[in-house]
Amino acid sequence: MKRFLINVLLIAGVLTVSSCDFKFDELLDNPNEVNASSTNVDFLLNQIQVDFSGFFSGTSSRGQRVTRIIHQASDTYEISYQPVNQNGTWGTAYASILNDIKTLKTLAEAGNFRRHLAIAQTIEAYVWMSLVDTFGDVPLTEALDPANFNPGVSPGADVYKAASDLLVAAKANFSAATFLGSPNDLFYGRNYTRWIRLVNTLQLRYHLNRRLIDKAGATTAINALITENNLLQTGDDFVFRYGVSNADPVSQHPNFVGQYPNGGGDYQSVFFMWHLTEAKGFDDPRARYYFYRQVSANPTSEAEARCITEFLPAHYPQGMIWCMPGTRGYWGRDHLDPQGIPPDNNKRTLYGIYPAGHSFDNNTPAGMTAANRGANGAGIQPIMLAAYADFMVAEAALELNGNAAAAKTAMMSGITKHINFVRSWSLTTAEAAKITAFESNSAFDTKRTQYTNAVSAEYDAAADNKSRLRIIAREYWISLFGNGNEAYNLYRRTGMPDNMQPGQIPNFGKFPRSFFYPADHVNLNSKAKQKASHDVKVFWDNNPDGFIK
Amino acid sequence: MKKLSLVLGLVLFAFGAAMAQRTISGKVTDSAGEPLIGASVLVKGTSTGTVTDLDGSYSIEIPAGTVVLVYSYTGYTSQEVAVGTSNVLDVTLAESAEVLSEVVVTSLGIKKEKRALGYGVTTVTEELIAKRPEADVSRILQGKVPGVNITSTSGVSGTGTNIVIRGYSSITGSNQPLFVVDGVPFNSSTNAQTSFASGGTTASSRMLDLDPNNIESVSVLKGLSATVLYGDQGRNGVILITTKSGSTTPKKKADISVSQSYFQNTIASLPDYQSNYGGGFQQLTPESWFFSNWGANFDVVKSVPHPVGLSGVASIRNAFPQFAVDPSKPWGAGANSSNVVRYENKAYETIGTSFFRTGDVFNTSLQINGTAGSTGYNVSFGYQDEMGFTPGNTLNKLNFGLGLNSAITDKLSVRSSFSFINTDVVTPPLNAGFGSGPNGGIPSVFANVMYTPRNVDLAGLPFENPVDRSSVYYRGGNDITNPIWLTKYFSNTSVVDRFFNSTSVNYDVSKNLSLVYRVGLDTYTENQEVKLNKGGGGGVNAIVNSGFYKSTTIKNTIWNQDVNLNYNTSLTSKLKLTALVGANYRTDEYSQFGLASNNQLTFGLFNHSNFIATSSRDPFGGGINYVQQEKRAGVYSSVTLDYADYLFVNLLGRNDWTSTVEEDNRRILYPGASISFIPTAAFAGLESKTLQYLKMRLGYGTSAGFPSPYSTRNILNQNPRGWADAAGTVFSTQAISNFLGNPNLKPELQKEFEFGGEAILFNNRLKLDISIYQKTTDNLITNAPIDRATGFSSTAINLGGLETKGAEIMATVTPFRTRSGFNWDITANFARYRSVITELGGGLEQVLISGFTNLGNFAIPGRPYGIIKGIGIARNDKGEKIVTSNGRYLEATDIVELGDPNPEFTSSLINSISFKGFNLSFMWEYRHKGVIVSNTVKGVLARGLSKDTDQLDRGLTLVLPGVQADGTKNNVQVTAANYFFDNYFFTDEAITFDGSTIRLREAALTYNLPSKAVSKLPFKGASLTVTASNIWFRALNMPKFVNFDTDVLSTGVGNGLGFDYLTGPSARRVGATLNLTF
Question: N or C: which end of chain B has fewer CB within 10 A?
Fold first, then answer.
């Protein structure tokens, strides 16, 4: 009976189908979208650059939080950085940037779009290095293959090497005599000299991170780079620039978006603000650019900030800053404070003009409103600055060459460059008039000189290289507002700045020497294996467990 | 049933008298001597007849030559009595097992005797559907069909309804059933334009367009063996609706029925608020106004500076100089707060009256039916005018229906039903909230209103800035949009114009062979608008605050054609054959276009030209403009063998071709078979007073599932406005889509075994209908996430397996049936299902079904479908909760399983008590277990609002149960504010509750005017019904005073379950309907 039924059905079916033309094939292509045959290398590169800013924003945010540049919520590091929290970085890296670059490479090589290729390779190198810095071993050789849903990981060192090779290739492509096309270069406006300096600086970064496991190799390579003297220089700063569009597309700085229009957003870190305002006995000239105070006084009600009536936690070291720094309304939160949010969004200290593109603090604190928007979010991501190159050179000079004087020169150059950059960039924004009205160039120079003199004296007074490294690292760290990637690497590499503010509870978790793999990787990939703990270190970190907290 | 018979009898026969020659009278009783009210008495071979009255008496004038009178009554065996010389004929009717002759509508609209079916079908008749306060037929069906789980997404009028029949069969595909109206598919989509987490929660489900008062009956086909002929669309069950327009019941005389209803719609789940404490924290009421209600006791702090005068926003403060003591001097927060007028710190009226309202619901319904020549007609008109209990929420629905049924020749007949529907829903925006504002700043009316601090005088405070009309509320940063302002100036609207036609042509080729061609057209346009005036303040995101307007026009069209050849014959004297061969062709076309604008120029006007920026992309939901087309073709066959009316064997199969996969995989064949065996008919002597009827059935069915269109090929995402640099230059971008097209995608095959039994026992006092089933799907079409290290984030793939086992029991008991006409029927429904993920394969450990990656429903091998994972509380090796040195629970470091949201079982008890002309019905429901994550409970408890938080002196310190990190008993004392806030606010585990709920779903009291009284009035029948819905409920294991209603689903229509994100309390409706028949 069943066979009969099937026969009847099939005969009827064949008759039906052959007699009608249903045109099913026409319905297979999505009529709403273009397909790969329409790929345009300019458009693709645009997306890669925009996605790269998002990738940097994510990794940088984490790095700033663990190094106390920005406040970190939750009780412990493990609660803050659960596997599910890493999905974004992983996805943006592989599914957006790297997969688009893979397509771009094919098109660029076929069409001789050398400069497009070079920009993509530089970005790709940065992304691979950041993936290693964040997670350790990651898929490389088996990645980006749609036929393999379970790519296995490659050793971090191999991935780093691949990134370095990409930089070499990029450098060649930036200098290639013949090329086609003209990329929309959102960073340098097609100034390839600057791109080459960036590539060199990224090589410096590569070798500096590797110095713990390959001191000799790193020393040779870094000294060669110093000798070549073609690192980022003043004016070459590699930054991603945000716009003022708040919709279609949203192009404002994410930190600005987070606190606009009614305040709120991230709490600033009490520990970091303390370094910028109270620690040296005078204000860092950058403090008014970094932080925007909404009030000029500290909270007075326990309901608004519980810490004001609480004692210093018993596990805090003597002299550690607790609660608000000073009395001038630098209203932030201590490291790993998990509490709920009182109505302080118009009181807590906000991101200032640098780098988030909000407001310069000209000593007239007022709550953020739709009218008080400063530079309206047209901020930057300071991905690699000329100043950072100096700080890296300073660390290398001290740690690899043992040259404290050269280290000082580089450090002082870095401090000056950074302080100048913060102001000079801020003066390019809509806040320029407000800034110059508050402090003239000469008034600012005076403050910078006061600052550099103090650091210089402190360095000269330092007894040993460890103390010197502490100062170099602290000054680098202060300049890394907005760049958590370098701060996170610096902290793991040097353990500096040491004596950072602890969490609120005695056992505030293990400092992430690398982050847990994303939930999406572990749950979806049969070859993936989650790490046992935050103690798992990346390949270039040979410092002991518990080295940093 | 007696009532119905009476009405039908009246309709049919009251004026059916013809030429009379002689009058016969008498009484019709049952075997116990009880009078049978409304039994029909018919002159055989004519349409002349009458019905018995309340005493069972009748009187009929019979024409000359009458030989036989036919006496019939539902549930009793009809009797033919020869007319003798006597003018008095008393007749006793024997009770029959009515199911023996019960006819139900099965797939493709084919009517079959229920006894012949090898699968379970539940039929819901008009009395359980009409005259209800709900405009959405699916909500009326709640609890009435075992195995059908129906969940309101929200109590807000017009919001969608989630329906899942017999558990789940797909992880990422749709599990919603097919609606078939008058034989053709009826689109029941929920056209949400954005996700539930960005304002998509208000979307209506399109079954809302049906008029419950125009429904004659609903049959629910639950198992695959019942739905094979519907193809892949029937795989999640079929809800077959026969409208009065499409009904076949002939009416001899024109018959007009009018009904008018009025109901009051109120909030059913308002928490019981405490009245001793106001806004603040730690027993303090500082100048700044808190979200939370942990402030000082009203006896301690009797006044505070006026919140508006204290506003941190100068433009608000300055607009209200009346809140300054001396407006010539500065006033506001901080140093100037002493120049702000004082505001009495006390418990003001609750949001129950200061915000919510009593909504009026009017429903008018008109039905005209009759016959003209060889054409039967039915005209129906319905109008629902409904106000929600939330300000700004209305629902208006106009239904116009026309049904025609005409015999053109003896052999050729045409039946056609037309409907025009206009549905107009307006709601304030709804969006997911977590107890501190709406998600992403996309507004939601309930986001903050449920925990309004008790000292906020919502009704008395100004809500609008007189200068620029922006929102004004109590918070210093103005970071909550005033809910009254919001309901006035924010709205989401949906206007649907729908045309629906089902036409069938029936040609009787010969006595045994008939040909049916049926064509269905279901087409509608839905205009959705999101209208958000500028000035929402800090409680909404910057785009919304600038003024936002989105208009979307959706057009959906289904063409469905069927050709069926029906053949029946008697092979032998005992063996009958019924066969059907058919073909089906269906096209679905969906298109939508729209615009989204922001930066409103003039307040109040919603036209894209009143906005500075307009885009074809929605900043909260991506693309607005797209089309989607899908075609399917199928051939099918069904053969039924009937042996001696006690053994029925049905074999069926369908072969489909779909346009959504590549050519090689396009065809799928799926068979089904079922057997029905009736021992009480097969074995003489088995039938007794104890056992009147027994049927056993066994069914096997399969069905296909097709992927959604465009899943097999890769695309490139192109964005003309990908980036805007600081100078405002816009760059276009392209990116390889993160979705990996899978050219090898195949249709999936689902299989189901079903076994069941039906019995009638104890002299018709107990009827039982039991089904058990097992449903499996392998190679599920899953929109599977893949490791992004592949370069893609997801693909459509045949992967994994799902198994559902379940049981349904429906029992009808008649405990009382007395001589005086008192009758009490109880129908008990029970259903349970267990859907378990048998495997995922491909290295997948879990797949997110619905929700967020760190709080959602997951598919995990070996675990129940949709298990909830979220942020848990850390526990030590002994399973004890760990408390930190701050006195809070320590969060677990990875998300943990929080529970299974699927109820262990659902049940209902439908009572119907009738006496004389009165009928009282009431329905209880009980849902056992199934967890729910409630952000309403979170907000109300964590923020110190309900009486649950006022059971003790808030001045005392409390200690959380648990242990410290070293394993010793926790002894860290915390304040009441920290106890509740820290405990309920930070982990999802703390707000996950057992959802067991007992509920009095509906009650109705109907009074039918007696026929004697009616006869003196100018109409044929009259009845008055008083109805109430959702009268009382209690979630047994949830905090008592929150009064939380578990009938809510904030993730919207789809595969999510067990989440409340503050998207709407539930409704209670009470009212009455007057029905007149002319």
Answer: C
**Closest of B488, B590, B580 to residue B531, by C-alpha:** B488
* Among candidates B613, B718, B787 on the partner chain, residue whose Cβ is nearest the Cβ of A247: B613
Residue B912 · residue B824 · CB < 8 Å: yes
Partners of residue A93 in chain B, C-beta under 8 Å: 788
**Angstrom distance (rounded) from CA B181 to CA A429:** 64
Q: Which of B894, B897, B847, B848 is nearest to B869 (CA)?
A: B897
Give the β-pairing of B40-43 and B103-105: unpaired
Tell me the pLDDT tens digit for each residue of B894-926: 899 999 999 999 999 999 998 888 999 999 999
Q: Which amino acid is at A494?
A: T
How do B238-243 and B178-181 pair as beta strands?
A: parallel
Is the pLDDT reported for residue A9 higher than 80? no
- Between strands B1059-1060 and B931-934, the pairing is parallel
Interatomic CA distance for residues A391 and A414, integer angstroms:
6
pLDDT of residue B18: 37
Burial bucket for residue A4 (CB in 10 Å: 0-12, 13-18, 19+): exposed
Tell me the nearest-neighbour CA distance from B462 into chain A, angstroms: 20
How large is the average pLDDT for residues A181-194? 95
Phi, psi of B359 (to 5 degrees): -90, 140
Cis preceding linkage at A506, omega within 30: no
Q: What is the 8-class DSSP label of residue A328?
A: S
Nearest-CA distance from B129 to chain A in Å?
A: 39
Q: Which pLDDT does position B250 carry in this prediction?
A: 56
Q: pLDDT tens digits, residue range B565-620?
A: 999 898 888 899 999 999 999 999 999 999 999 999 999 999 999 999 999 989 88
Amino acid B12: pLDDT: 37
Secondary structure of residue A410 in the 3-state scheme: helix
| Gap between the Cα atoms of A135 and A94, Å rounded | 13
Q: What Å distances lie between residue A334 and A324, A549, B891, CA to CA?
A: 8, 15, 19
SS percent in chain B: helix, strand, coil, step 5: 15, 50, 40
Task: Report, as an integer, the average pLDDT of B244-269.
Answer: 82
Q: Collapsing DSSP states into helix, strand and coil, what is residue B436?
A: coil
Chain A, residues 45-84, CB within 8 A of chain B, namely: 46-47, 49-51, 74-76, 78-79, 82-84
Residue with the two structure tokens 């000029």: A296
Three-class secondary structure assignment of B734-766: EEECCEECCCCCCCEEEEEEEEEEEEEECCCCE
Say what the ipTM of the complex is. 0.93
Give pLDDT, residue B248: 54
- The residue length of chain B stands at 1078
| Amino acid symbol at B799 | L
Tell me which chain B residues have a C-beta less than 8 angstroms from the C-beta of A32. Answer: 623, 625-627
| Residue whose structure tokens are 């048998």 | B838
Contact (Cβ atoms closer than 8 angstroms) between residue A29 and residue B651: no
- The alpha carbon of residue B353 is apart from the nearest alpha carbon of chain A, in Å, by 27
Q: What is the mean pLDDT of residues B446-474?
A: 95
Q: In sequence order, what are the beta bridge partners of B1005?
A: B920, B1026
Determine the average pLDDT of the residues in B681-693: 86
For A454-473, write each residue's pLDDT tens digit: 999 999 999 999 999 999 99
Residue where the block lists tokens 């028949």:
B1077
Of A36, A74, A87, the CB nearest to B714: A36
Write the DSSP string, B263-318. Answer: EEEEES----B--SB-SBBTTB--SSPPSSB---BTTT--EEE-TTTT-S-HHHHH
Closest to A6 (Cβ–Cβ): which among B669, B885, B891?
B669
Looking at residue A169, what is its pLDDT?
97
- Report how far Cα B1046 is from the mean position of its chain's Cα atoms: 14
